[in-house]
Design a protein that fits this description.
Layout (H helix, E strand, L loop, with lengths): L1 H12 L5 H20 L11 H13 L4 H20 L26 H9 L7 H16 L3 H6 L5 E2 L4 E5 L5 E5 L2 H17 L19 H15 L7 H14 L4 H8 L4 H5 L6 H11 L5
Antiparallel strand pairs: 1-2, 2-3
């Protein structure tokens, strides 16, 4: 189990995953190890080949575990074996040719208010620079509805904390101004204080930087959203755009004018914004029922 301990250390120190994500990986790997022991296969997890993994998949399927959950468990194994190849412990991953089980396609839906509150109101983020950076990224997405590339390209000078506004440069170089609400202002202020003390190179005039002073990659931002919403949401799609979707949908659900939401999102036409209102149909039905003179 020494390799497992090194892998967990790697996720913590090098990958800087949250404690909840690390626990999920560790649980999946220990479950597979326990399966090998209980089945009396007399093989360690490091040296298990694909036939043993296949037997585990069959066992999980027989226990009525969903394909989505099985795929997540196998994904943990895949990351572990990739780490073993990287460190020279094994030559090739037994999951190299594995294809995930088919999952039923679901309509993309926004994160619920409860899911977002659960993530932001609990202790899921580390207190170090990377942890605060990741939390501020998620808070910024939800409070502004910006696109991923807009967040990555945002300059420090685009933020005006005195007037509580942020200038966003959108598609076709179209600028828009978004108000900064108090909770976002607090998050940005805390992040900026930490940034000034921890980032070794501040030459780039960008709001969000890695600890070494480099621009964030699109992959880093995607993984940040995906990693943390894996903790609180069972939804299949967990990407920055889902937070943009959530921002717009929650505003409309609370009665915001769709034209105002259009301006906040930076859409050129109203038709682009209307896609975010389809998940609000239950509220529309409720308003219609309560408002129409012949509804009662």
């Amino acid at each position: 189990m020494m390799s497992l301990e090194k892998f967990i250390e790697y996720l913590d120190i090098e990958k800087n995953y949250s404690k909840h994500t690390i626990i999920a990986y560790k649980t999946d790997l220990i479950n597979f190890q326990d399966f090998l022991i209980e089945s009396n296969y007399k093989v360690e997890i490091e040296s298990a080949d694909y036939k043993f993994i296949r037997l585990w998949i069959v066992k999980l399927a027989n226990e009525k575990i969903s394909n989505r959950t099985i795929n997540r468990k196998i994904s943990s194994l895949k990351s572990f074996y990739k780490f073993l190849v990287k460190t020279g412990t094994i030559k090739i991953s037994p999951l190299l040719a594995h294809s995930p089980l088919k999952q039923s396609k679901k309509i993309q839906v926004p994160f619920s208010v409860e899911e977002i509150n659960n993530l932001l109101d609990n202790d899921y983020f580390k207190d170090d620079y990377n942890g605060i950076l990741k939390k501020t990224i998620i808070v910024f997405f939800y409070f502004t509805g910006v696109r991923r590339i807009e967040l990555i390209s945002l300059k420090s000078s685009d933020i005006d904390l005195d007037s509580s506004t942020v200038k966003i440069l959108g598609k076709r170089n179209k600028e828009r101004i978004i108000p900064i609400l108090p909770k976002l202002k607090e998050a940005i202020t805390d992040y900026l204080n930490l940034k000034s003390k921890n980032v070794s190179n501040l030459k780039l005039n960008l709001l969000f930087l890695t600890k070494s002073g480099k621009q964030l990659s699109e992959k880093f931002v995607y993984r940040t959203v995906n990693e943390y919403f894996n903790i609180v949401s069972p939804k299949i799609k967990k990407a920055p755009h889902v937070l943009r979707h959530s921002f717009a949908t929650h505003l409309i659900n609370e009665g915001a004018d769709i034209n105002s939401v259009k301006e906040l999102l930076g859409h050129a036409s109203l038709s682009s914004t209307q896609v975010y209102s389809h998940t609000s149909m239950e509220r529309i039905k409720e308003v219609f029922k309560n408002s129409h003179p012949r509804a009662k």
